[in-house]
Amino acid sequence: MTKAVLVTGATGLLGRQVVKAFDDAGWNVSGTGFSRAKPPAVIKVDLEDQDAIDSALDRTQYAFPPQHRALQLFGAANRFPDKCQADPDGTRALNIAAARRVAEAARSRRILLIYMSTDYVFSGKAGQAPYDVSATPNPPNLYGQTKLAGEKAVLEVCENTGLAVVLRVPVLYGSVETNAESAVNVLIDAVWKAQDKDAHVAMDNWSLRYPTNTEDVARVLVDIARQYLVADEARVAMPKVLHFSSEEGFTKYQICEILAEILGLPLEGMTGQGEDPPAKVARPYDTHLSTQVLKKMGINVGTQGFRDWWYIKEPRCSATF
Known about the structure:
This protein is α/β, with parallel strands linked by helices. The protein contains eleven helices and eleven strands. Strands 3-2-1-4-5-6-10 form a seven-stranded parallel sheet, with helices on both faces. Strands 7-9 form a two-stranded parallel sheet. α5 (142-157) links the parallel β5 (112-118) and β6 (164-169). It is globular and about 60 Å long. It starts with a strand and ends with a helix.
């Protein structure tokens, strides 16, 4: 049976890997983007334009015989907390309103929707992690609040249909077009800046992060899609929210130490802040996600070793290896 997937945010950090993973798995893949769209492979779609969304979904739904199975993966988001705080209206428009709009269009066509969300829906207070899918969300900032609202919108639109599932993930890293695409990759730039011993780069050495590779997330998304599409009507009883995360936890300063070691560079110009550092936007201490539900579903939740990936796959960090 033909399987088709439409990936929104296909030009982004995660979206590019998702497109590749589904293509490698034999799916017919379409993608949408906006500022970086490259037709015909990735069509330009304004997620505030309902007609554009409908057209993209119709193209996915009707490009194959009636018995094909279609999937919509919503990965577009304003995902940087500082940028969210600086543009609250734009953030709500993309993270909430666009998510609802896409969910309504997908439901009307009986297309399964996977909505990407974040560990920042949780408060991250010390002693609470790891968070199970049944844990009560309490987001500490606007980013988490809007992603949680997006989750609720999608699940509300698709209630009792089995046509929506949420996948929460932590901070992501992987192959990038620029380091600024990832809150992890961009730390390479901080390491280089710290080569000036008088740079006084202050780096958080307090809160824990569980950087997860985009290749692993994409692989898990393919596995989730297979199970939910095959289940058909039975997926009404399947979990509506899933968690995926690496088990390796680091502070940002510890990540910088690893990157500096691989690059063969000192860190004399950087200092770690060991207490909750002052910030414009509140960050959680530890939002580690439990992957138990995925494990029970028989999905492989293993991830690449953080240090190993940088040595092997990232030229900017493997050149001195």
